[in-house]
Fold:
Amino acid sequence: MTTIGVRIALFSAYFLFAILLNSVGTVILQSMRSFGVEHAEAALLEGFKDLPIAIVSFLVASFLPRVGYRRSMIIGFGIVAAACLFMPLAPGFLTTKLMFLAVGVSFALIKVSVYSTIGLITHDSNAHASTLNFIEGFFMIGVFAGYWLFAAFIDNANPASLSWLNVYWLLSGLSVANILVLLCVNFPQPPKREGGADLIGDFRDMLSLLAAPAVLVFVISAFLYVLIEQGMGTWFPTFIAEELFVPEAMSIQLTSIFAVSLAIGRLSAGGFLRFVDWYWLINGCVVMMAVLMLFALPLASGHGPRPDMTWFNAPIPAYVLPLVGLTLAPIYPAINSVILSSLPRARHAAMAGLIVVFSALGGTTGSFIVGRLFGEIGGQKAFYTILIPMMGILIALFYLKRLTGEKSSAQNVATSRGVSQ
Structure:
């Protein structure tokens, strides 16, 4: 069976959700301008996006193989298409919160389906890691496109203008286009499980994964990683605009450097991981990330408004800080692949559910903490606190390496429970 059509569908799905999910930083900035909300209130948008991801994934992830991955993705895109239409039709902060809630519910269906499908179209752990990195890398290309797409609809002369909401007409159309792509693709069938349709049994099966020490250490790693990525990525536009005094549209465009860095880092890692041990690569990435931040953050002090601000004279931290994406990028796909490859394919949907749950919780926590600190102690000090979870990742990686090895303890638990591949 050819997998080209399936891969195109997965890449296309991730591209659109990259735009929607990572627009939260831009929408936070524009909501403060257009709807008059404060930092702490705007930070809640991340929760409206991530908590539905966590809840829906937790409840239905193990059941999705019975529904079908393609059908689940079509449902997700249908919800998003409708939600995007309401943004320009009923503008307001409440509508914005409901839109992100819909995006969160939909992405739970999409991500679990994508991660589970990857296990069906790859045949060894190296190919799995490589494919996952390429898809996550393409996700970051979508993030980059999203920053420029939203910036094109922002009126710099009138920051409070609602013109930026017109971008949602286009995003609704792209959701419909993704439904059409999925209808034309022949998806592989999920592996059959023993027994009949039992939602409670599927739910219990996902929870049982947490009994494996490797899985427990992994979810801690995933939580900390997304805390870092969302804590920085969500607040980059506001940091650049308020700490470095860069115009709004330009601050969003500069944040696209973060997305490009993540894309380059993940696409490059997709090749490196075929030949380099994931553990040493990821540890090196965490250390380099900390070095970049310790270099750039001290340079963020002492800036003020400049009417002649351009791309050629913007403060150095506006360019250097987003480059942490290069070293941040390979971590998440690599650790996801390590734990998924250690499990039988029949348990990938359940594990993908846990991945989405703890990633969503980490994203909400990171954005909320940085947002609150941003308003109380300033953006520079708020970003310094991100060095703490970086240390936590290094510790978690050490134990994850010990617990997986060639024959993961997670797989031992799955096998002892009689789960067939």
